[in-house]
Design goal:
heterodimer, A: 146 residues, mainly alpha, 8 helices, 82% helix, extended, B: 329 residues, alpha/beta, Peroxisomal Thiolase, Chain A, domain 1, 2 domains, twelve-stranded mixed sheet
């Protein structure tokens, strides 16, 4: 059998992913995460009497901590699997990727294991985050002058 | 390439599993199941080594032999440099042939052992293999605790240590023939669709076996494939029909039997070298001993995949080896 013919046979038998349903779940959970973040910012700035910019940093630290803690407690992978990009795109996804890799490689030593592998998944987020920030920053300067 | 054997018997088997398999429909056919994936060890790799070691210890105690009585040990697993096999063998201390055939290890090891026994080079052999869900996840996919979604065609690696004792001493199950497969590559690059990668290999080996032994599909009570999963099984059926004009009605796939696909979250089914033997050594063997099945063809399939070369956008080759069991009641 020709490879092309086989590939079309495979395609016929490969199940379709429920894209619309997945998008809706991600949209609503992602939206809820945004709401939660904003709520935290408001609460921090109100009760701690700090500017919004500082409260945002507090909010990020809180969400990263929760993402890491829930990953370490062992049930966050099931949440992420269900919510998909609703939990992966927010900062919780970054925390989850970092923490799961750290947990996995801790037993291979602090330096050779944890240190070397902690950013195995999250590393690309940082690299391409920096690169895209640079590109968009440059575009902004070129288009609206800063 | 098909070999015929006159004097090889399957005398005893042992199966040890993890928690997911114990919750599956075949749980009562396993010798022992653990409810924790670490098995009292510190790492996933050590847990897998323990699984395999314990299955061999259990096998030896079942047949009442000491390790010095065993002529040869043929074994393989999924981990890099087949570490589970090597570390187990260093504890067991039987002369070893370590093989890598991915998830088709069980049938290849039976084939090799049968060749050696039938040619009177050895009088008995222990064949073993293992897979561990978490050590496989770590090596081939993502960290175990990472919950990124997977497509429906992905499979769930079974956790199990399995061993079998083969010898020239007559018993209820006779190994009559075996077919050594060739590597096929149909240009599938999706590591989350192993059923599609391996189905042509299974088809190729089944067809070779039927031709070389001059048998038909209906001569077998059951053709049991390894770990194609629910979609790979359909692909195999269609492939056999369009390519060779053979319709297989008596086909079962271990991946669909070891777990309850509707209740357990295992995507397309089980996978791993332990998948087929967990089903065959316990469940199928018992049915054969009771006389329900007389002739069964075991067709384990292996995706010869390395994470590095898949990342380099290369396609995944696959292989399949078949072994025929006949009831000798």
């Amino acid at each position: 059998m020709e490879k092309k013919k086989y590939q079309s046979m495979v395609e016929k038998h490969t199940p379709k992913e429920n894209t619309l349903f997945n998008c809706l779940i991600s949209f609503f959970i992602g939206g809820f995460m945004g709401f939660l973040g904003q709520l935290l910012v408001d609460l921090y700035s109100y009760y701690l009497n700090i500017p919004t910019k500082e409260a945002s940093t507090f909010m990020i630290i809180t969400l990263v901590f929760i993402g890491c803690l829930f990953t370490a407690l062992g049930f966050f992978d099931k949440w992420v699997n269900f919510a998909k990009c609703g939990l992966i795109i927010p900062i919780t996804g970054f925390a989850h990727a970092m923490m799961s890799a750290a947990l996995e490689y801790r037993k291979e030593g602090l330096v050779t294991g944890l240190g070397a592998n902690m950013f195995k998944l999250a590393g690309s987020v940082i690299i391409f985050g920096v690169v895209s920030a640079y590109v968009f920053g440059l575009l902004r300067i070129l288009i609206i002058g800063g | 390439m098909t070999f015929n054997f006159n004097n090889v018997f399957l005398n005893e088997t042992s199966t040890i599993t993890g928690p997911y398999e114990a919750k599956g429909p075949l749980s009562k056919y396993f010798d022992k199941s653990y409810h924790d994936l670490y098995f009292g060890e510190k790492t996933w790799e050590l847990a897998e080594i323990k699984l395999m070691t314990e299955s061999i210890d259990l096998l030896l105690s079942k047949i009442g032999l000491l390790k010095n009585d065993i002529d040869i040990h043929i074994s393989g697993d999924l981990l890099n440099q087949i570490v589970s096999t090597n570390y187990t063998a260093s504890k067991i201390g039987i002369p070893l042939i370590g093989i890598f055939a991915a998830c088709s290890t069980s049938t290849l090891s039976m084939l090799l052992a049968s060749l050696l026994i039938d040619s009177n080079q050895v009088k008995n052999a222990v064949v073993s293999t293992s897979s561990h869900n978490s050590s496989a996840e770590k090596q081939f996919r993502q960290p175990v605790e990472y919950g990124g979604p997977k497509p429906k065609s992905a499979t769930f690696t079974t956790t199990g240590g399995v061993s079998a004792y083969l010898s020239n001493k007559e018993d209820k199950i006779k190994i009559t023939s075996a077919t050594l497969g060739t590597v096929v590559d149909y240009d599938i690059k999706d590591a989350f669709n192993m059923g599609a990668v391996m189905a042509p290999a299974a088809a190729n080996t089944i067809y070779e076996h039927l031709c070389n032994t001059k048998t038909k599909v209906d001569d077998y009570d059951l053709i049991l494939t390894g770990d194609l999963g629910r979609y790979g099984k359909d692909i195999l059926k269609e492939f056999m029909k369009t390519e060779y004009g053979i319709e297989i009605k008596n086909l079962s796939d271990s991946a669909c039997m070891i777990f309850d696909l509707d209740k357990q979250e295992v995507y397309a089914g089980g996978s791993g070298p332990a998948c087929l033997p967990l089903v065959a050594y316990g469940y199928i063997r018992e049915l054969m001993q009771k006389g329900k099945y007389k002739k069964v063809l075991l067709v384990a399939t292996g995706a010869l995949m390395s994470q590095t070369i898949v990342n380099e956008k290369q396609s995944i080759p696959a292989i399949s080896h078949a072994v025929c069991w006949e009831a000798n009641l």
